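Q: Structure tokens for this one, please.
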Amino acid sequence: MVIDPLDAGRYRPSLFNSVVAPRPIGWISTVDADGVPNLAPFSYFNGMSATPPMVMFACNAPDDRAEKDTLANARATGEFAVNLATWELRHAMNRSSATVPRGVDEFELAGVARLPSRIIRAPQVAQSPVSMECRVLQVFDFEPEHPGERRSSVVFGRVLSIRVDDAYLDSNGRFDVLRAAPIARLGGFNYLAARELFVLPRPGKE
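A: Here is the predicted structure, written as tokens:
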């Protein structure tokens, strides 16, 4: 089967989401120009580089406003924080994804506590084992080219500070992924939790 993305009768975004998976979840916290906090998950998220540490997240324009509050806040303040979404925090993460009016505090909606950041104004999710404070490097906006498409925006950020809960570090100081059990997004309402690891050394690195 070959599918033309412009063929609305055959192309389904849910298929694309199922194939490009699993996708890490960037649980992004921001504040607006007045300091009102916002918290929302983004499944089109990933790291870009470890040296220097950089991340990115992307989103489409929503139906009820010009752009998502997270994106508007990142533009206005030049900052955002990334919080690790884990198995234990899955329900809180999901609650924070609800479509609510601008100005609603999703920290309260999700039932998670705020933790002040060291450098940026946006608070962190206190219960998350890892949070990264980021400075916006650049925002790219891609305008729709065909009917039915929406504007897509990609935010690139430089990581300024990383908070790691010591309880999730092993005796060698490495992050214990299985203990944290980060979750990833698949297609539809499906998610995946990190529960099993396998080792596969690169050729010549055995």
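A few notes: The mean pLDDT is 94. The radius of gyration is 18 Å.
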